[in-house]
Description:
By secondary structure, this protein is mainly alpha-helical. It has two helices and no strands. Helix content is 66%, strand content 0%.
Amino acid sequence: xxxxxxARKGVFKRQLKLREAFLQRERQRERETLSSVLAExxxxxxxxxxxxxxxxxxxxxxxxxxxxxxxELGRRARAKHPTLTKP
Length: 87
């Protein structure tokens, strides 16, 4: 992310799309695992359930963030007031 401004045109967007696809797959896998664990433990008040819910929430958060970045990508601009250190 920090060096994305140095990438060739289209590379950053392509990387975001790849990350988005990966997160969607992982989110689905996490949901399936959660469903399986819930069936096994029989209630939602179990450490394994809580951890899986946390992971799913983290995937959701990053997916929302990537969605916002993809919408704003066309507005990307250089820093208006860069601070450069001089030797």
